Amino acid sequence: MDLAGVKALLSAHARRWPADAERAVRIVEFIGAHRDCLLRTCVPGHLTGSAWILSPDHASVLLVHHRKLGRWLQPGGHADGDADLFQVAIREAQEETGLRSFTTRPGGDPPAPLDLDIHEIPAHGGEPPHLHLDVRFLLVAAPGEIPQASEESTAVRWVRRERVGEYSEEESLQRMERRAREVLGQL
Length: 187
Fold this sequence. Notes:
Elements: H1 3-16, H2 21-33, E1 45-54, E2 60-66, E3 71-73, E4 76-78, H3 85-97, E5 102-104, E6 115-121, E7 130-141, E8 153-160, H4 164-167, H5 171-183
Parallel strand pairs: 1-7
Antiparallel strand pairs: 1-4, 2-3, 2-8, 5-7, 6-7
Helix pairs in contact: 1-2
């Protein structure tokens, strides 16, 4: 597991987005304390990758209604040992939305994260509460594909970007939308 690469990605992100510096430091410290941080068996928490997916015309964002959490969220999930969190975000986006092809914004290899978030996942079944240390990327869906809900979701929906707040008041979703507008020069 290339945790040095993940740390470098987080450091570069913190330089680009100083408001995320504290979250970046917390994730780097977590990585230092938990060599198994890319595995969901890491009980205190684990790294995840997710995607803020825009429609081809950039007018809408794709949200999924998460079955376990009962909330509208961006697609994303567990790294399952993969240190390439961009590929994790793509894999999870494909699994959770049925979309196959995406483009990314320019900005490095791998593409630079859009956002970082640390949030607690409540206990479910035999799984204790734990943290998701989420690295989020901006993707644009290819034209012509039709999203489909997966087993993990009750619905998947294109939402006009100006209406995201009607689906979720979570600050992290609002922050991703603001960042996407900034990155795309839409302020």
